[in-house]
Amino acid sequence: MADYEFDPFDDGSSRRVGERQVQKMQQFASEYGTQLREIGEALDSTLSEVWDPISDPIGLDLTPYEQCGLIELVRTDNKLLNKLMLVFSSLCLECKKLVARARDHFIPVLLIAGHDLKESKLREGNTQVQMGELLPTLTDFSNFVTRCDNVVLNVVRQLASLYHPEQKMYKSSFKGVHMGTVFDHLAELLTVLAILDEVVIQNPALSQAWAMYKRMTKNIRRDPDRYLVEEEELGQFEKLLLSLEGQLFDGLIYQNCVEQMFDFPGVVEVTTNPALLQEFNIYLKATVSRLTTQSGADASLPGYRGHKYMRICAFYGFYWAIFKDPQDPKLFQVLWELNRVYPIMHLAGKAAWISTEFLKKKVPYMVKSMPPQKVKPAEWRDEYRKNLARTFSESVSKYSQDVAVWMVRMESDLASRADLRKTLDARISLLFCGLGLANEISALFHTFKSLHVTMRSPISEANICKLLLLVELLKSIEATYHRRSVLIGETAGLMMQQLSFALQSTLLPLRVALQSNKKYSDAKLDTLASIHLSLQMLNGPSTPARQVLLDLCLHRVLALSAIKDTTLAQVRYYKKQLEILSRLQGEIRDACDTSFMLWNVAMLPVYLQHLFQHPQQAPKLPYMFAALNDCARVIDEARHTDPSKIRDRFCKKVIASLRQEIIARVCDSIEIDLRLHIHSHLKVSDRNPFKKPVQNFAPFVMLKPIRLMDHNIDIRMHVSHHLDTSFYNLTTVAQYNWKTYEEMRNLAKEKYGLDLIQPHLPGQTLEQGLDILMIMRNIHVFVNRYSYNLNNEIFVEKEAEGKFLKTINVQHIANSIRTHGTGIMNTTVNFTYQFLRRKFVIFSQFLYDEHIKGKLYKEARYWKANREKDDNQYPYERADRLVKDIRRLGTTAQGQSYLDQFRKLVTEIGNAMGYIRMVRSGGLSFTSNAIKFVPDLSDIVQFGELCEKEGLSAETIAAAKNLDHCVENMSKNFAEGTQYFRMLVNVFATEFRNESNSHLQQFFLIVPALTLSYVDHMMNLKDKLAKKGGKAGGHFTDDGFAVGIAYILKLLDQEVQFKGLHWFERVLHKYRTEIAASSKEQKNQSTEQERDEDVLASLNLTLLKKSKYLREFELLHYSFSGASVFFKFSEPKQEPIEADAAAAAPVAAAPAQGDNVPVAQADYGYVDQGGEQGMPPPPPPPPGW
Q1: pLDDT grade, residue 13 (50/70/90)?
Q2: What is the rounded CA–CA span in Å between residue 1006 and residue 915?
Q3: What percent of the chain lies above the pLDDT cut of 90?
Q4: CB under 8 Å to 751, separation ≥6 — which residues?
Q5: CB distance 1059 to 1143 below 8 Å
Q6: Spatial separation of the C-alpha atoms in residues 661 and 224, rounded to whole Å
Q7: Which among 29, 535, 684, 943 could disulfide-bond with 960, CB atoms 3.0 to 4.6 Å apart, if both were Cys?
Q8: What is the pLDDT of residue 2?
């Protein structure tokens, strides 16, 4: 067998299996790829998401960087040019560093110090301590100002050394070269000094705090020993304070700088240098010309031109301080009239700058020489403000649309994969477009707000919302840049390379042209060296040092007369693009900076109110908080106190506004909406969306947690906590509303996506109501205070002590049985049995009374004699006469007759039977819920027998038998626990029908009179219920009477006899006939021409009353018919009375012949509540209980 081989046979099964596995693998790979793609799309950023740079674990810095100094960069064969480039480039870089230092450190320090001192209300002691903490920074500030003065002095002297008629290099090479870059950096530094002046001057709290600090030093001088200070050191300290005050706090930072002694006698001439004066004039005219006629390529470059205007004004003040040259008044006139276009300039925080005020102080001579009709800056500003207010809404709408279009283009065009060159050009254009929009939006915000504040003109709430919409647009632009930062970072280097290549392509032909001409001169050699150095700068990263050197070189290169104007403009355009792109992140941060919100936080409540009224705009809220987070940049620069304290105060103020205007109102609105939705069937309010728009607050709940500095604000969590707390507390107060609040929790999940916490209240508090044990022990009180409703199978409290009526239903009883066990059911029936025994004693006494018994025998004789005559229908008049006859026997203090008391007795008996029915239903409900885990009730497995067969331990067998016993009891109760009514009928029926109780045999004849009493009683109760308040004894149901009548008729076996009266047919026919007659009479009265309004009103009232009576009799008929169904069962054959019947006999036994109890003395109340003396002991439970 080992050598046996199967014949090789290939039926293709192996190949099919392999193909099947390959298909499964392909399907798996496809599904897995789809899932990964869906996950990626879900995690990918979208336009609607707001970025949070604080939570970014890694930041992307695109600023070009290289470890190379200026000396290493400037390497040409022209040593004189190298020296010139090194000097001016180092000075420009120094100016740039000083400007950055002032903007990033000193200006925020001064702003936050003044703002915080003003907020703290300059308290004595605390203010001096804070100024003491600020003193080292003020010393650094003084050193910084001194350094700025020295740099300005050095720049001017270097320029004067170059631009001098006797300077050889100027005459040979630089006479036509204009160093605009040096002037730009000088003007920027002067502008910063002017801004520092304005920040200090417009910060009165800082000046007041400084005065308080100086006053403290004077107090110390009076008693230096007390403060452990030496007098000599105190004198030096006071000199330091005076020096700081004169340099920093008198508003002379800029003035001291421009009024320095720039001339160095015998070395440098500045004020009398005509070449330098000419360069100053050329620079001023060129910059003013570019500002007034900016168009074409320059117009597409981003930049806030208002700042350029301030820079020109600062430089003009510097120019006037040096030369005091009034030779060109037209230049000043153009500069003055630019105030119409740039009426105000926002500096930082709440500081603003007005050009006309600046020029009046710095150039008073030129202002006085202006025509009077043109010296109206206040009118210009007011006119500009009115025009701006008129077009403000349109401008905001336009910018909103432009930003939306730009954001969509950034998400689509930026990811284009077309030709690389075109793609880079498109991306550069998009990046600059967003930056330009940010600058324009920021300028619009500051101009509008500063004009209104300066001119003390109020801003409407609508305009406040539009102003803050501009803030949102700024943060959305910044968010878009951040969201696309990875893609920008991937191509930023390529974009700068492309611009560098474009500049190189322009410069290389110039170098070739110059080299082709062998006639060299100093100017030509300097130009060639500048071109060479420019190309070197373009071959590396676009760092600030390379940018400055490139600018300086291009000034020399572009001074060639052979260069066309188009080429000149193109080079400047590419150079400006390269400069902005190299510091793109800084430009975006500055343009979108919203730290000014620290001084405008008072606008926030108005904005939040508007946002609450327009919930669909809720997704904009994170942008506003991103703007508020920018305030941390200023707060963290605080030196007078711990920045965390200022942050905490700021956050508390903002969060308090958010909670008051948004969170609290959203919580209340959502809770109200849930309540109205759940109770919509009650029509508690008009929720027609066509009349009143329905607001959906889901957008607020759907917001992700918002970050405010060190705080996280989760609106969803606040709403959930509010609803959890409210629902829990209200459920514990009103336990009967637990189901309503559970429905509201489910609705909150479906409508708002809120996962509310389950309260997990104790089981007995949910749908418990009165406990079955309490009802059983006080059955006599229960049947008196509660009314039974047959159809709904509930008991309703007749009169409530509080605001609500208590109810008892089947679920309450089932919960009580679950708590106490099924054994409580038999005990409850036994208690009810004993209660019925006592009530039937009173029942028998009433019917045994001679007055009642005599009247009933009289009715029996009449009925027997006139039955055929009355068409087998008991007359209504006989029943009504019986009611009146019994009333003549006497009434109680409450005006109730003995028939009314008897009706109450019958009703209480019926209530007791209704309670037994409810116990039976509750037991079935509980048992059905408990037995549902048994698979087959017809074939129940015996676990005890199975355990014995398996030979398990005795303990296990005992436990299994206990389980069998429990399952058997539940099964028996579920299948057979329905005989309570039959037992209560059988236990009393024998004695009730005994000949010794013959006085009970006429009971059926008093039932018509009882029904009349019942209908009058119900009419009275419903009339009270319809009255205002409806609390004075009003009620709407009392079906215990119908159940009691049906039960007693069954006990007496008088059902057929009562049906023979045809009572309900008679009374219904009577009222229907009367209603028809009254309707006919009413109709006749209405058609008569001369109708009597009083008669018509009387007919209407009569018709209404009879209709109510008819409805009540119909309801009673229906209830009686339904109650009779409970007792439609066959009875066992009569057997001799045994122990149980003998025990029950005294219950219904009539009094002895000698013990005649008058009706007037009979007690139909609750004298037997505690048990009567002489009563027989309680009988044993009926058989089978």
Answers
A1: low
A2: 25
A3: 14
A4: 673, 674, 677, 698
A5: no
A6: 54
A7: 943
A8: 44
Mutual angle of helices 943-950 and 954-976, in 10-degree steps: 160
3-state DSSP assignment of residue 47: coil
For residues 288 and 249, is the Cβ–Cβ distance under 8 A?
A: no
Name residues whose C-beta falls within 8 Å of residue 1168's C-beta, 6 or more positions apart in sequence: 780, 838, 841, 842, 1175
Q: Which helix (H) or strand (E) holds 845?
A: helix 823-848
Phi, psi values for residue 786, rounded to 5°: -120, 150
Distance in angstroms (rounded) separating the CA atoms of residues 729 and 739: 14
- H/E element holding 348? strand 345-348
Neighbours of 10 (CB within 10 A): 7
Q: What residue spans of 1027-1092 are helical by DSSP H?
A: 1040-1052, 1055-1061, 1063-1087
Check residue 454 and give its pLDDT: 86
Partner residues linked to 346 by β-bridges: 352
**Coil, strand, or helix at residue 683?**
coil
Query: Rounded mean pLDDT of 1041-1053?
Result: 91
- Is 162 in contact with 173 (CB distance < 8 Å)? no
Amino acid occupying residue 615: P
Pair of tokens at residue 273? 């240098």
Q: Residue type for 497, please?
A: Q
For residue 1063, which of 1103, 1013, 1005 has the smallest C-alpha distance? 1005
First to last CA, the chain: 81
Confidence of residue 1094 (pLDDT cuts 50, 70, 90): confident
Are the beta carbons of 156 and 322 closer than 8 angstroms?
Answer: yes
Q: Which residue has the higher pLDDT, 226 or 298?
A: 226
Contacts of 204 (CB under 8 A, 6+ apart): 114, 118
**Would you give the DSSP letter of residue 891?**
B
Place of tokens 């168009």: 295
Which 8-state DSSP code applies to residue 264?
B
**Residue 316 structure tokens:** 């003009």
Distances (CA, A) of 917 to 128, 1039, 1120: 86, 13, 15
User: Whose structure tokens read 């109102």?
Assistant: 665
Tokens of 777: 């022990």
Q: What would you report as the CA-atom Rg of the chain, rounded to the nearest whole angstrom?
A: 51
| Per-residue confidence (pLDDT) for residue 1034, from 0 to 100 | 73
Cross-strand partners of 707: 712
Four-residue CA torsion sign, 770, 775, 781, 784? positive
- Taking the complete model, does pTM exceed 0.85, yes or no? no
By the 8 A CB rule, do 731 and 761 touch? yes
- For residues 378 and 40, give the distance between their C-alpha atoms in angstroms, rounded to a whole number: 58
pLDDT tens by residue, 1009-1044: 999 999 998 888 888 877 755 555 677 888 999 999
Q: Would you mind telling me the total number of residues written for the chain in this entry? A: 1185
Give the amino acid at 417: R
What pLDDT score does 51 carry?
53
Exposed, middle or buried, 330 (CB in 10 Å: 0-12/13-18/19+)? exposed
- Residue 716: exposed, middle, or buried by beta-carbon count in 10 A (0-12, 13-18, 19+)? middle
Share of the chain above pLDDT 70, in %: 86
- Angle between the 876-888 and 1003-1026 helix axes, to the nearest 10 degrees? 80
Residue 115 makes CB contacts below 8 A (sequence gap 6+) with 205, 349, 598, 599
Tell me how far apart the alpha carbons of residues 347 and 197 are, in angstroms, rounded to a whole number.
11
Contact 817, 771 (CB under 8 A): no
Closest CA to 473 of 495, 516, 517, 442: 442
Who contacts 163 (Cβ-Cβ below 8 Å, separation ≥6)? 170, 174, 273, 275, 276, 278, 279
